[in-house]
Specification:
Blueprint lengths: L6 E11 L8 E11 L3 E5 L6 H6 L9 E6 L2 E2 L5 H7 E4 L10 H11 L7 H7 L16 H13 L5 E5 L7 H18 L2 E5 L3 H7 L2 E6 L2 E7 H6 L4 H7 L9
The protein binds adenosine-5'-diphosphate and magnesium ion (MG).
Length: 250
């Protein structure tokens, strides 16, 4: 399938101030950029640089103070929250499980849409968990298991934009690679658009088509991924890539 180049997520002069300290603290400062349909954007940057905030703006968890966020050319605040969240799935950095079994958790989103999840075993196996786990209480899972269930829960709803916040960070390297491969396969099958925050620079390079570096709430570099890593334009990027700005922090 050919790539549709129309921008699917677009930030226009977006500024987000701290809710606690709006006069002085700015979390994101004048961010502009776009992610074309069917592309994977990887977002990297030191801890506290605004990566999670950037994702939260795309599904109305928070609203910008200035500027606009366009999803499929429509400003986020013009969407109804339900419609928007059906199209835009966010997998949080720290997964939350709802009371009930793993199966209940997987069914959550699809139930809201009046459907039942076909073949839940398939989804759970794809994130590297055994089907027996479907019967277990979700809150008894380990952090890594919760992270995988949260990912399966969101992607099973078939959103067309995926916001992935450090989704493999709680997994061991082998499991992280397996889950990463599965995400890539599913992405190319479903032609979804992905904003993928990661502190793993190798992962950002492997999976991205475009890469952004955030530092102190500013978008300091935005380039096609290969170029970003091979030939960054900004000194800040070069320093980040060699670990001088806290490159390995989440
Ligand atoms: N709800 C909030 N209230 C106040 N400050 C916040 C809030 N959310 C995030 N921040 C601050 O904004 C900055 C960016 O946070 P975040 O987007 O989580 O960064 P990252 O994901 O890159 O680590 C941090 O300094 C954080 O403390
Ligand atoms: Mg974060």
């Amino acid at each position: 399938m050919s790539r549709d180049k129309a921008p699917t997520v677009k930030f226009l002069n977006v500024t987000k101030k701290s809710p606690e300290n709006p006069q002085s603290a700015t979390i994101l400062q004048n961010i502009s950029g776009e992610v074309p349909a069917n592309h994977i954007l990887t977002v990297i940057g030191p801890s506290g640089s605004g990566k999670s905030t950037l994702l939260s703006l795309c599904n109305l968890l928070i609203s910008p103070d200035e500027g606009e966020v366009l999803i499929h050319s429509k400003e986020v605040r013009e969407w109804t929250v339900t419609d928007l969240r059906r199209r835009v799935g966010l997998v949080f950095q720290t997964p939350t499980m709802f009371p009930g079994t793993v199966l209940d958790n997987l069914n959550l989103g699809v139930k809201l849409q009046g459907k039942t999840l076909e073949n839940p075993e398939k989804w759970i196996e794809k994130v590297g968990l055994p089907p027996e786990i479907l019967k277990q209480s979700a809150n008894d899972l380990s952090g890594g298991q919760k992270q995988r269930v949260a990912l399966a829960r969101v992607l099973a709803n078939q959103p067309d934009i995926w916001l992935l916040d450090e989704v493999t960070s709680a997994l061991d390297p082998t499991a992280a690679r397996e889950v990463e491969e599965w995400i890539l396969q599913l992405q190319s099958k479903e032609n979804s658009t992905v904003l993928w925050v990661t502190h793993n620079l190798d992962q950002a390079r492997r999976v991205g088509h475009i890469t952004w570096l955030l530092a102190n709430g500013r978008l300091v570099e935005a380039l096609p991924t290969e170029e970003f890593f091979e030939n960054p334009q900004e000194d800040v990027t070069r320093r980040f890539l060699i670990g001088e700005l806290g490159g390995i922090q989440a």
